[in-house]
Design brief:
Order of helices and strands: EEEHH
Helix content: 40-55%
Shape: flat
Oligomer: single chain
Distance between the termini: 51 Å
């Protein structure tokens, strides 16, 4: 896989070496979301959490977020 800029210059290159993919790109072109995604994937591979553990954690996070933010939405809607 190889992408090119409008000028035809390479801005990313992926190379297959054995059972690995090596991705190279210019630091000016990097998207922080991509790096976060790759980091998350790597961390999750090391996790011993079960699907149930992850589901429970997700529910806890959502409940906490709603508790901290519900007034913003309820008050916003009541202004009408």
């Amino acid at each position: 896989m190889l992408s090119k800029t409008a000028k035809g210059e390479k801005n990313m290159q992926a190379t297959l070496r054995g059972n690995k993919v090596i991705v190279e790109f210019d630091l000016k072109e990097v998207d922080e979301d991509i790096l976060s995604l790759l980091t998350s994937i790597e961390i999750s591979k090391k996790s011993q959490a079960t699907e149930e553990d992850i589901y429970k954690l997700s529910k806890e996070i959502k409940a906490k977020w709603w508790k901290e933010n519900k007034d913003r939405f309820i008050n916003e809607n009541s202004l009408g």
